[in-house]
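Deviations from the work plan: none for this task. Representative record:
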Amino acid sequence: MSKALANRRLLTRLSVFAVAMFGFGFALVPFYEKICEVAGINNLIKPAAAVENTQIDRSRTITLEFDANAHGLEWEFKPVQTSVRVHPGEMIQVEYDVRNKGAKPVVGQAIPSYGPKHAAPFVKKLECFCFKQQPLLAGEGKRMPVQFVIDSTLPADVNTITLSYTFFEVKGAALPKGGDQG
Amino acid sequence: MEAAHTHHGDTHGHAHDDHHGHKPSGLMRWVKSTNHKDIGTMYLWFSFTMFLVGGVMALIIRSELFQPGLQIVQPDFFNSMTTYHGLIMVFGAIMPAFVGFANWLIPMQIGAPDMAFPRMNNLSFWLLPPAALLLITAQFMPGGGAGVGWTMYAPLSTQAGPAMDLTIFAVHILGISSIMGSINIITTILNMRAPGLTLMKMPLFCWTWLITAYLLVAVMPVLAGAVTMTLTDRHFGTHFFNAAGGGDPVLYQHIFWFFGHPEVYIIAIPAFGVVSQVIPAFSRKPLFGYASMVYATASIAILSFMVWAHHMYTAGMPVEAQLYFMYATTLIAVPTGVKVFNWVATMWKGSLTFETPMLFALGFLFLFTLGGFTGLVLSITPVDVQLHDTYYVVAHFHYVMVAGALFSAFAGIYFWLPKWTGKMYNESLGKLHFWLSLIFFNVTFFVQHFLGLAGMPRRIPDYSLQFTEFNMISSIGAWGFGLSQLLFLYVVIKCIRSGEKAPDKPWDGADSLEWTHLPTPAPWHSFETPPVIK
Ligand code: HEM
Ligand SMILES: [Cu+2]
């Protein structure tokens, strides 16, 4: 085999390898999602698996504070009650009000975050408006429930948990019908 | 031999004339050059130009940080400076400098007439200036440069202004250039060695580049993928990194650092190669533990794929993952230690002299090792939780990248300048350049360890009062370091213009083919007939 041919073969092989690595970068996306799923991390907007410790622990009272934000959306979004006091193990339901004050129908997705951060796994959400995308027509409003249990294994140093939701716009999502599409 | 000729294709006859002495002159010689030495020279000058551009940005940063409060620039512009300083130094200065060395030296050291694909070589180089222009014009886009950091983390990068798009395109172009350059290097080394020159007889510099080139082909496409995802998130409604659409910004960090950690070794490994040529030459002894050097370099390269998340200890990870990444990272210190040991053992009982290249190599040896130690400190998860995103990290990577890679590049330039130009540089001025660089480097960066330990965050234009003194010292050092590099430019120009004629082999202990088989200055075509290797 001449050297020129050998060189060209190596060129082809290495180019194929480079293209494959470009694909590998994209393959990391489902791989990452799978790992998160298996490891049970990053399931903020999924219902909790079966709640185990349902014994109500009346010796502890936890203060839950609620917060709401809309990022880059002309939405009015606020909790109906700003805080509640609960016992671990108790089933609680709270509500949030949201209204689209903009002139266009938009789809939003709420992302929860917790303070302190390490309390997150102990807030077991059974029902939440954040489990699905929320389409709102121009001017449309909604009252939305969140249902959850505070796991009674919550570390003893946590007495107050802040639950904060932020609505983000989901660009390119299917819009609700009947709205002004302009 | 044959290969180079066939690849010249239509210029076949022309190439034949060349080695009787003529070469194309004027600007077109450079624009259309397929000669590895011309291309190497262009890479080196490009790199130095970018070094000055990135350096001016660094001085803007340090001038603002001379005092607390905002004196000179606004925060947005400051953020843009930290971003483009990082990008330009990494992709514009350090990487092209070592590709320049690769072009000049690999064909000479393996007894080949040129690179395997001379025209692709031309293209690899000429992709760089447009990419650099994109990075510079990004500053003038509406909203200014993208202040996202050189790591371009989402969600900031998915929300940044139009400058971000130019930056993404620049990264794409730089990536393509690096990949083509690497394919060229791998092919040249694997296929074009002189008969008898087995892989294990190659100078270590060629080995380090072979390994680096593989790293580049493996990870540059991954970076290209990451910024492509950022681009489609920005404009085409995808949600790779957008939490609202089901994506995750932390995913960006994983993909980026899968590229990013090997990238730091892409910068470090060719630097190891240069130092492994320089230290034996001035110790007048062969390199100690050649085979273990090759294996250590290869293991560093392989390990570098398995430690990326040490940049993300605070991003949220299960504790088992943190433990794994901590142990894997500390493991890298083992092959690195082997290398340092071998360099020291090479000098042991050697007849040492301390010309400028050796001084820079020793500077590298001491300071790179110090940077390795701070790396070990950072690799310990509970410690890093405290130090992450502080000036301690800034100190760490400047020890490995400036005192490591850059000093090694200086060592290499002083070492091969006589072979490249046929003239000697001024030794006293070279030594002065070394001592100024060494002192000002440490004035600038040593104090940053203390700032980081005291909790000063990185990438901020303002800071609380207790950090003032160390910041003042650091800023003074930075100006001193920057100005010292103008002396380097002067030394190089003076050498080219009016240096004394250099002998064929100015360094007693140098033993690779470019010194033993070629005249000084190296002829335009190196080995028309391959040398005979015993
Ligand atoms: C023994 C070898 C090394 C170890 C154990 C090590 C460890 C680390 C760790 C743990 C960090 C993350 C710190 C943080 O962000 O909190 C880091 C950052 C960094 N290291 Fe190293 N490192 C080593 C060698 C190198 C080398 C050889 C280079 C480059 C030539 C390098 C360049 C960098 C850079 C650029 C960063 C900062 C990236 C950024 O956040 O912008 N390191 N290193
Ligand atoms: Cu790293």
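The CA atoms of residues 31 and 213 of chain B lie 25 Å apart.
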